[in-house]
Each structure stands twice: as structure tokens, then as C-alpha cells.
Amino acid sequence: MEFSSQTKKTVFYIIVAFFFSIAMRLVWVYHFSGYESFFHNGQFMINTNDGYYWAEGARDIVRGVVENPDAKEYLQKLHQPHDLSPTTSAAAVLTAFFVKLLPFSFETVIFYLPAFLSSLVVIPIILIAKKFDNLEMGLIAALLGSIAWSYYNRTMVGYYDTDMLNIVLPMLLLWSIIWAIDTNQDRYLLFTALDILAYRWWYPQSYSLEFAFFGLILAYTLVFDRKNTYNYKLMAIMLFAMMNLDAFVRLGVVVGVFVWFKKQELSLKALYGLLGVAFTAFLVSGGFDPIWGQLKNYVFRDTLSKADQGLGLHFFTVMQTVREAGKIPFETFANRISGHVVVFLISLVGYAFLLYKHRVMLFSLPLLGLGFLAYVGGLRFTIYAVPVLALGLAFLIVEIAKRLPTRKLQILFATAATLAALYPNYRHIDAYRVPTVFSAGEVRSLVELGGMANREDYVVAWWDYGYPIRYYADVKTLIDGGKHSGADNFPVSFILTHPQDVAAKMARLDVEFTEKTYDFIDKHKKAIEDKNITVFSTIEQMTKAYGFDDTNDFLDALQTDIKLPKKTRDVYLYLPYRMLQIYPTVALFSNIDLMTGKRKKRPFFYVTSRFQETPTQINLGNGIVLDKQDGMLSIGKNRMPLRRFVSAKYDSSMHYRVKEQMGSLKSPLTLIYLASYHTFVLLDEASYNSLYVQAALLDRYDKNYFEKVIDTPEVKILKLKI
Question: What does 201-250 look like in DSSP terms, one character per residue?
Fold first, then answer.
């Protein structure tokens, strides 16, 4: 088969853009190739917490294949019940496939896979441009779109997450829709439906974008092309592909409908009926439910959540603390999409011009709209607008170049304009030196923990560390990057920020009640799905189990000698030094009256490594100054004594030495100097007496409740005795 010159040119441009995209992502590797703390098992570790979730599933799949090569149902035997390992998720399955296929280590695959898969976005970008006979536009857009600020951030090497295909698949969907509407060829009906199936398999939250594409096609048809039977076929097969049913069921329906379309010519009236059937099937299967759920999570969100039944407890929600779900300044918004505000504004002009010249590009509006949602709904969405506005900028560059008098000037202008647009994005790539999630030392501690703990044991840690702990130690956790509702977070926050005696009791209670909850859900799954039974939070279950109607009374009872549930497994507490910076955020989740939703007085907790010391004083910043001569502390215009001054450091033999100098018992504040970390902590009495501060920062753990099993400058791990 002999390929046309245009096809050869298309393939060449795709290859150039693809390897350019990968090369830019290797800049991070170049910068950190000598950082031993970023390596584990001879390979870079990944740099996103969520990546360890998919890595856990992929690891268990690979391990299951090795240990059970002949087992027909090995996927069900890969991990223990309730460990939340995603062995059936698309990212885990695809990763396991590549691990078995390629001659590289598991760590190598998960580190480099994002760079290669995300770079595939250049294919639909260039193929869309090919539809307009404008391959140069496609090349420019692919170069920019593949490395633009936010897209790079979420697809760089080590950013092992679903984002590595989350733009590739909708861009392929946009390509198939554009070609379908413009050519009316039957094959694009199937391409569109299959892409929806693949997109849903890869990213179950794709409902909203798929429905937006459908809605735009419907509007386009009603306004511009009402009598075109092809458009109704396209919409019907899309709805069948979008049903909220098992993927194989939808695949069978889609293939059956496509074969029917090929064999029989349907009248417009018959297609109206089919479209009605498809829409009904979409609604009845619950197709719209997840869309509303996403809107509530990201747009119509509140700070507090409240149970619908039972005690009606109020919990602090995590959405208000997640940066990607917050509003962002316009400059940040523009930079993340195009690299620079000027480039962004010019791209908007080019995009408007592109819409004017090629009406079919109206179908890119859902991607642009979702990207612009970032301005009010969170920065993570900006990646959706990146390739669309890259096409707009590229179109404007090519159109201006065409109007120049000579070929030489045209090439010179297009090259200069492209480099100018790429430059701020390259500068960002060069400066964006994010570290790995954990250091090599922290990982060694977790691997050591995995050697002493059983897979059924629990590790209590803040949700930021849940996925990595499960991956490296192969244990269970109470909360993680996906299981961190206010109800889930409250007990863990309580454990970390309260005195050791009540913290120990809560740790045992939450672990045992968590397992009981899983068993209850397994036993009553159908009734729960039908909403005939409500699953209450563990803290509400504890309250009722001990005979209280008020959770505050139950929490007070933890200070007494209450009878704890029977121990079914060991519990460990993971106390990393790095949690010091987020302690105030951790405390938010338990610093609330669960019965009323009223927030309690916020703890005073100030951390700084940027201080200035003179012979007479220590300036801690933000108007906080310690007078070294009389020990008085100044906070703004207020002057007070310290309750105590504590210094802690590792000596030359790596023994942790703590010295305490008492001051005035009337003072509410204590100053801790962590000399080995060159850090001061100014905190109130409640925070000072918390489990985290006492055990992690001062190495004072209550031997009646805990046993220290791992002790390093980076992390301390305790084992619960009760």
C-alpha cells in the first residue's frame, strides 16, 4: 500500500510532536538524576500521592498472575477483603499489561508511563487539523498543547495518574465527532461510541463531558442540520454507549445498533423513535445521576456535611482544604492553560477566528467550557482547555503567516511565533522541580513496617499518606486520597490531635468499627443500594454502641476506663515529620461539635524555619519575637511570657535529646525549637499535649498504650498495645 504525501506528512508531524513532548518531560529527570533520596529499587519514585493507588492495584494484579498463573478467578484472590486495592480499575489493568509486556521494572513503568501515554494527545490534535487541510496548524498546536503548563504538571514523568489519558481520550472523541458530522461516514459512528466506552472505562467520571458533547450535537442538529438522518444515528449510538450499565453490555448494544444501521436504512421518523428509546434507556439506567453528583461535589459544595438520618452529625468536608477544588486568580488560570496571559488572550482570539472559519469546531466548546470551569471550580480542570486553545493559537499563527508576501517570511514568522508561545511553558517546565511523594528514607521505613505487620493490620495516618503506605507496607489504612469524607477523617484527626490515652482508645475503636462496617455493607449490600438501610459513620456507631445519644458525651467518656472492643488485628500509627506543616489542617476535622456543627476555637499552631536570631532576640516572623534576655514573647503589640521552652535535637550518636525549661503556668503558649530541623513551633497547650506533638516531635510516647517500632529523623511509627 502506497501512502499519499499528506499521510506521510501527517505521520511525520505526529512523530515529531510526540517525541518533543516526551523530551520536554525528561527535563525533570535531567535535574534530579543525582538525587539519591528520590530513588527506590534503583529507579525514580513517582511524585503524586494518588499514583500509589493505581500502583497498588497494578502490583496486586502482577503478583496475582505470578502466584496464580492458572487460576481462572485470580483477580478475586489478589488481596485481602476491604483493603481497597483497585485491581479492576483501568489504570491498574493497563499498567499491569505494560509491566508484563515490557522488559522494564515495575517502578520504571509507572514512572515513565505518564510521559508516553499523555504525549499521545498530539495524534487527535494533528488529525483534527488534517480535517481542515492545515497540518502546520496541527503541528504547532500539538507542540504547544502537549507541554502547556497545566497539562505538563499533571502528565510529567512520575505523575502516574488517570490524567495521562484524561485529555487524550476526549480529544479523540472530539476528533471522531468532527469527522462524523463533516463526512457522515458510518465508521465514525462506531469510533465515537467505542471512544465513549474506552473513556468511561478509563475514567468513570467522564459522564458530564460525554453528555455535554451529546447536547451540543443535538443543538447543532436542531439549528443547522435538522433533516440529516446521520446526526440522529450518531446521537442514538452515543446515548447507548453512555448508559450507566456494565461496559460489556453497552459494547454489545453499541455493536448491535451499528450493525443494524449498516444493514437497514431508517427513516427520519424511525430515528426519532430510536433516539427516544436511547434517551429513555440512558435515564432509566441512571445515566444522569453521576453528572449531578459531580456538580454537587465541585460547584454546589458546602463546608459542612450532615447525615440525613440518625444523630444528624455534622462533619467538616475535605473539599474546602483541597487546592485543586478552590478558586484561582485569573493570571494563574491563564498561565495554566497557555503559559502566559498574553498567549492566552491571543489564543482566545485565534479560537474565535477558528470557530468563524470552521463551524464544526463548535463541538470543542465542552472541552473549553470544562477548562474554564477551573476559574470558579478548581485548577485541575484547566487541562481540558489546553489543546483547544492551542488549536486556536496555531490557527491564528498559520493564518497570519499565509498573508505574508514570501514563503521565507511565512516560515520565519510561524517559527518565531511558535517559539514565543512555547518559551514561557518551557521556562515553567525547567522551574517546576516537584519532589517525589516520599523520600527514600521514608520508603525504607514503610518497607520495614511491611516486614513486621500483617496485611490485615491497619496503619493510622493522615489521608495524604494513605496510598503510599498501602503500596510500600502492604497494609490497610483508615483514610486515603479517595476515602476522606468528613466522617472518615474525624476519628483520625481526633487520634492525631488529642492526648495519647484517648487517642489510643479511638484508634482501637475506629479500626474495629471500620471492619464491622465493611462486613455490614457486604451483608446488606442490596438493601443499602436500595436505600432501605443507612450506613452510619463509625463515630455515630460508637456513640450508640456505648449507649449515648450525644457524641460529645461519648468523646468525654473516652477519658474514663471504658471497655474496648475485642482486638482483631494490630494497629500502627504513622507519624512523619512532614505532617508538622499540615497539623492545623488535620486539626480542623475534629475541632468541631458534631452535634451542632459549630466549630470550636481554632488551635494556635505556628511553624517557621525562616527566623532571624540576634544576641538579644529571635524574630520568628509575622510579628512574633522572642526576647532572649527575659524570655518574653511579643505577638504584635501583645507581650507575654512563655509557658515553657522546649528544645529537641539528635546528638552525635543520633540519640534524640529533649530539654524543657518551664516558664509561667498562666501562659497559653509553648515554644519548641527543633534544632535538627532548624524549625520553631509556637503552639497552645492542647496542641502541645497532642499525640502527634508528644510522640513525633518530642519522642514522648505513653508506654502504657504504645510501643515504638520504627524511629528515624523522618518518621516515627508506633504500635498500639491495647
Answer: HH-GGGHHHHHHHHHHHHHHHHHH-TT-HHHHHHHHHHHHHHSSS-HHHH
Structural contact between residues 146 and 20, judged by C-beta atoms closer than 8 angstroms: yes
pLDDT, tens only, 10-26 = 999 999 999 999 999 99
Phi, psi (rounded to 5 degrees) for 454: -85, 160
Complete DSSP assignment for 528-546: HHTTSS----HHHHHHHHT
- Across the chain, mean pLDDT equals 92
> Mean pLDDT, to the nearest integer, of 303-311?
60
pTM of the model: 0.90
Calpha distance 680→697 (Å, rounded) = 11
* Percent over 90 (pLDDT), the chain: 84
- DSSP at 669: E
Angstrom CA distances, 14 to 17, 20, 92, 125, 130, stand at 5, 10, 27, 9, 11
Q: What does the alpha-carbon distance between residue 200 and residue 373 come to, in Å, rounded to a whole number?
A: 21
Please state at what angle helix 90-101 crosses helix 106-118, rounded to 10 degrees: 110
Q: Which tens digit of pLDDT belongs to each residue from 386-433?
A: 999 999 999 999 999 999 999 999 999 999 999 999 999 999 999 999
Cell of 545: 454502641
Pick 440-586's CATH classification: 3.40.50.170, 3.40.50.10090, 3.40.1380.40, 3.40.190.10: 3.40.1380.40
Binning pLDDT at 50, 70 and 90, where does residue 320 land? low
CA angle 96, 99, 105 (to 5 degrees): 135
For the chain, the C-alpha Rg in angstroms (whole number) is: 29
437, 470 contact by CB (below 8 A): no
Residue 308: pLDDT above 50? no
Best CA proximity match to 658, nearest among 697, 613, 605, 714: 697
- Check residue 66 and give its pLDDT: 53
Per the CB < 8 A criterion, the answer to whether 368 and 351 are in contact is yes
Instruction: Provide φ and ψ at 235, rounded to 5°.
Output: -65, -40
Per residue in 371-408, is it b (16+ CB within 10 Å) or e — as a string? Answer: bbbbbebbbbbbbbbbbbbbbbbbbbbbeebeeeeeee
Q: Show Cβ contacts of residue 110 under 8 Å, excluding neighbours closer than 6 positions.
A: 46, 51, 54, 55, 58, 95, 160
Identify the DSSP state of 33. T
Grid coordinates belonging to 289: 445521576
Residues facing residue 669 across a β-bridge: 684
User: How far apart (Å, rounded) are the C-alpha atoms in residues 261 and 230?
Assistant: 10
Q: To which H or E segment does residue 422 belong?
A: helix 407-431
HEC-encoded secondary structure of 452-498: HCCCCCEEECCHHHHHHHHHHHCCEECCCCCCCCHHHHHHHHHHHHC
How far is CA 27 from each of CA 34, 147, 390, rounded to the nearest angstrom?
13, 12, 22
The Cα 288–Cα 290 span in angstroms is 6
Q: Please, are residues 244 and 285 in contact by the beta-carbon 8 Å criterion? A: yes
Q: What is the DSSP letter of 599?
A: B
Question: For residue 298, which phi and psi values (nearest 5 degrees)?
Answer: -105, -20
Q: How far apart are CA 429 and CA 24, in angstroms?
A: 7
- Burial of residue 37, with CB atoms counted within 10 A of its CB: 0-12 exposed, 13-18 middle, 19 or more buried: middle
* Alpha-carbon span 458 to 258, nearest angstrom: 50
With the CA atoms of 399, 405, 406 and 408 taken in that order, what torsion angle do they form, in degrees rounded to the nearest 10?
A: -60
Query: Could you give the CA distance from residue 594 to residue 517 in angstroms, rounded to a whole number?
Result: 20
Residue 649 has pLDDT above 50, yes or no: yes
> For 566-588, how does the pLDDT look when each residue is reduced to its tens digit (9 = 90+)?
999 999 999 999 999 999 999 99
Give CA–CA dist 460/462, Å, rounded. Answer: 7
> In the prediction, which pLDDT does 1 show?
52
Integer Cα distance of 445 and 451 in angstroms: 10
User: What residue ranges do the domains of the chain occupy?
Assistant: 5-431, 440-586, 598-720
